[in-house]
Design goal:
The complex is a heterodimer of chains A (112) and B (115). Chain A has strands at residues 4-5, 10-14, 19-25, 32-38, 45-51, 56-59, 62-67, 72-77, 86-93, 100-102, 106-111. Chain A contains no helices and eleven strands. Chain B has strands at 4-7, 10-13, 19-25, 32-38, 44-51, 57-58, 67-73, 76-81, 90-97, 105-106, 110-114. In chain B, strands 2, 4, 5, 6, 9, 10 and 11 form a seven-stranded mixed sheet that branches. By secondary structure, chain B is mainly β. Classes of the chains: A mainly beta (112), B mainly beta (115).
């Protein structure tokens, strides 16, 4: 069963607006979460992470929010830029870091 | 939902031996399988792509004779690390997609340690 889910396969946002990508997980033992960005024909590149001791982590235009009680995390991109158009994956792991569980991705299109 | 099972999750092997990692799509047919290696900073490096019925396409810099990929069926792909060296120690992860799907389903990864 899919332990990490991204229920929106695609998202379109106007340039300059906020993009919000969502991710839900089922395993309460997950304590480390990551977001990756993927361009066609390339591997996913690491974007931002958050551990379960925090509820927010910010890096420039990217902010990840974690709601442990709801088992939900989200990635906010503001302002969105056309170069942000890509597929975004969330991933989660437990304390051993030996296994990562990925969502199936959300394709973001930022419209100029 | 679509599930990809990857085994083993963790393996320790001696230098010079070979290790096989399996990746199975459990409830769908994977027309394309991707193999990645995770490097520091958590980015995943695409090693190779294998499509149904054809040989794997390796990315530049990946030794095809060292990292053997077999897409044996629509539900199984294997990565064999041959003559493993300590520098091959890493986290390897597969993902699968189908023609009908725009998404990628990832395995849970294999932590390889070569001693």
């Amino acid at each position: 069963d899919q332990q990490v889910k991204q229920n929106s396969p695609s998202l379109s946002v106007q340039e300059g607006r906020i993009s919000i990508l969502n991710c839900d997980y089922t395993n309460s033992m997950f304590d480390y979460f990551l977001w990756y960005k993927k361009y066609p024909a390339e591997g996913p590149t690491f974007l931002i992470s958050i551990s379960s001791i925090k509820d927010k982590n910010e890096d420039g235009r990217f902010t990840v929010f974690l709601n442990k009680s709801a088992k939900h995390l989200s990635l906010h991109i503001v302002p969105s830029q056309p170069g942000d158009s890509a597929v975004y994956f969330c991933a989660a792991s437990g304390y051993t870091g030996n296994q990562f569980y990925f969502g199936t991705g959300t394709s973001l299109t930022v419209i100029p | 939902g679509a599930v990809v099972s990857q085994h083993p999750s963790r393996v320790i092997c001696k230098s010079g031996t070979s290790v096989k990692i399996e990746c199975r799509s459990l409830d769908f047919q994977a027309t394309t399988m991707f193999w990645y290696r995770q490097f520091p900073k958590q980015s995943l490096m695409l090693m190779a792509t294998s499509n149904e019925g054809s040989k794997a396409t390796y990315e530049q810099g990946v030794e095809k004779d060292k990292f053997l990929i077999n897409h044996a069926s629509l539900t199984l792909s294997t990565l064999t690390v041959t003559s493993a060296h300590p520098e091959d120690s890493s986290f390897y992860i597969c993902s699968a997609s189908t023609r009908a799907s725009y998404g990628y389903t990832f395995g849970s990864g294999t932590r390889l340690t070569v001693v």
